[in-house]
Amino acid sequence: MEFKRSFLITFILGTSLTLGFAGGYYAHAHFDLWRDQFPVLNQAFDILGNNGLKPMPEKPALEYGMIRGMLQAYDDPYTLFVEPPQHELESNALQGSFGGIGVRLTRDLEGYVILYPFQGSPASEVGIMDGDRLIFVDDMEISPEVTIESVQAALRGPVGQSVRVTISRPPDNGQLEFIIRRAEIPLPSVAWHIDSDIPEVGVIELNIIAASTVQEVQSAIRDLQQRGAQYFILDLRDNFGGLLTAGVDVARLFLDNGIIMEYENRDQKIEVYRVEQPGEFVDVPLVVIVNENTASASEIIAGALKAHQRAQIVGTHTYGKNTIQLVFDLMDGSSLHVTSAQWWIPGLEPPIGKGGLEPDIYTETTPDEAGVDAAIREASLVLMRLK
After folding, report:
1. Which one of 109, 187, 198, 292 has the fewest beta carbons within 10 angstroms of its own beta carbon?
2. Per-residue model confidence (pLDDT) at position 266
3. Who contacts 202 (Cβ-Cβ below 8 Å, separation ≥6)?
4. pTM for this one?
C-alpha cells in the first residue's frame, strides 16, 4: 500500500507540468465549446456577474442550479439530479446496509443535532450517550444550518474506517472527542409479523426493493412458517420501488414459469426477464396489498403475480411508473438519474403505465381512527376462503 501511494505521488509530481499545460488547453477549448453551444447562457452569465448587486454563487451551487435548469427543460419527471449527501443515503438504502456508527439523529429546540446510540453499536461502545449534542464530525462543524442528510453522510463511510466525533454533554456541556470505528449497520427492507387476529396468516411488509430484499423475504417466510403461518400477505403499500432486478427476483420466488416483464431501451431490441426455475414459495397461498404509492419495482412484483394469476391484489390503483432509470455517479459524489427504458408485463390489462395496476378487490388502505386496517382484514378473508 505504501509503495502504491509513493508511486502515485511520484507520478503526479513528475507529470504535473505536462498535465497542467494539457489541462489548461483542454479547459480553454472546453470553455470555448461551451460558449459556442450556449451563447445566450454565456451572455446571461456575464451580465449577471458584471452587473448583479450580489456576488455570483460559488461552485457547486452554480453548477447544481444549471443542471436543475437543464433537467427542467428536459421535462421528464423521473430524470433527476441528486446532491452528494442524498445520493449516498439513497445508495445505502438500496444496498441494504452501510458503514456507520449506529446512532439515531434528532434536533433539539435550538436546531442542534442530538445523538441517540443504538444498543451494542460502535457509538454506544465508545461511550456516546443519549442526548449528546454533536459538535464536529472530523473537521466538519455541525451547526443548526447543516442538514440531517449531510450529517448522516458524514458519519457514514467504509466499514472498518474510523471517524472522529466531538460532542458536548449536559449538564455542564463540556466537550468530549471520540474516535469511532465504523461497522456494518443493516438497513432492513422487510418487516414481518403474525396477524394478531388470525395466527395462521403471516404479514410481510416490503418498505423498499433493495439488494437484500430477496433474502429478507425468504427469511421472513421461513420464520413465519416456523411460527405456524400457512397463508401470507405481501404488503407493498407505500413502497416506491428500488432495484428492478431485485423486484424481478422477488416475483420469481412465487412463480414456476413464464415471463415476468419486458423492457425496451431507445432504439434497441426488447429484453425479457423470465422465470428460470420454479421459485421456493410457488405453493404458499398469497395475497398482495397495494396503494397509490406502490410504484416501479414493487408494481413489477404485484403486476407479475396478477398476470400469472398467482395472487389476488387488494387495495387501490398503484402509482403507474413503468420506466427504468439508470443512475450515473458524478465526479463530486452527486448523481444523475436518467430515464433510459420503458417496461411492461405481457398479458396485463390495462397496462401499469396507464393509471397504475388495477386491484382485484378495492378497499381502503389506510387504518381507521381505531387502528383497524381494512386492507389486512380483507386480504386475510381472501386467504381464509382458500382453506
Report:
1. 109
2. 87
3. 192, 193, 194, 195, 220, 221, 224, 225, 227, 229, 231, 232, 233
4. 0.81
